[in-house]
Design brief:
single chain, alpha+beta, six-stranded mixed β-sheet, two-stranded antiparallel ribbon, 5 helices, 12 strands, 24% helix
């Protein structure tokens, strides 16, 4: 976790359910650093935002459904890196080296899970979409580089059957930005509260949040269950969006059913 503020989807902390899609316009300056418009509690503390990649503009038309699918696959790869760090950690008596990007803020913790996950996500997205502009939270990974030559392209069909509208929706590549928060909840990860750890990838089109994927590397709070990715997309102007879950699913929360209603009326 840290200063990257791109709240696309809200997920209940104990369920893998999309609750809403935010369409608040994004405001950023290409190629410049800025202060994150986070919560009011951060107003007094100026937090620099990561540098935005400046790639050559392109008129290539991109299917938003296919881009979302690659974000889901990228989130899976990011979660693989997070889980690998946790697996190594479990064999070293829970030891995990971390630093702070802001020495006075415990929420600014940084671990190898953050840097490894961002490298995996950004390199794979660049390999799949050359020229795509990406904002990554961890500046240690070169924001303007071409990515690793060994990065494998991402799958474009993971959401194909559930994104009929998004698959037909196409936008120029240079109208799109992808935002990456490789480990949302780094402090919780360091403290071992694994069910609070997420990997976030958001898509903006023409300055508006339109799609995203939320990777849950520890769906049940540990390594026993495989990664879950919750995804959603909402085309501006549409009353409803499309969403789904890829991978292992969590048990749904208990319903407020007839038994509970009956107890309240007694």
């Amino acid at each position: 976790g840290g200063p990257l503020c791109f709240d696309l989807m809200l997920v209940h902390p104990t369920t893998a359910l999309v609750s809403r899609v935010v369409t608040t316009p994004l405001r950023f300056s290409r190629g410049a650093r800025r202060t994150a418009p986070c919560a009011a509690s951060s107003a007094a503390r100026q937090v620099p935002m990561p540098t935005v990649s400046q790639m050559a503009t392109s008129n290539e038309l991109v299917s938003i459904g296919e881009l979302l699918s690659t974000c889901v696959d990228a989130a899976l790869r990011g979660c693989d890196e997070i889980r690998a760090v946790q697996s190594r950690r479990s064999t070293t008596c829970g030891a995990l080296a971390s630093t702070r990007k802001d020495k006075d803020d415990p929420r600014s913790a940084l671990t190898e899970a953050d840097t490894n996950a961002q490298a995996a996500i950004v390199d794979a997205l660049r390999a799949t979409w050359p020229g795509l502009r990406i904002v990554g939270e961890e500046e240690e990974h070169d924001a303007d580089g071409a990515g690793s030559a060994n990065a494998r392209s991402l799958r474009r069909d993971l959401c194909q059957g559930d994104t009929h509208d998004a698959s037909e929706w196409r936008e120029p590549l240079d109208a799109l930005f992808v935002f990456v928060d490789p480990v949302d909840g780094t402090r919780e990860f360091v403290e071992g509260r694994l069910n609070a750890v997420q990997c976030l990838i958001g898509v903006a089109c023409r300055g508006r949040a339109v799609a995203g994927a939320i990777g849950l590397p520890f769906p049940e709070g540990g390594l026993t269950k495989e990664t879950t990715v919750v995804w959603g997309v909402a085309r501006p102007g549409n009353k409803t969006g499309e969403h789904g879950v890829f991978g292992a699913t969590r048990a749904p929360p208990p319903r407020f059913g007839d038994d509970a209603k009956q107890r309240l009326t007694q």
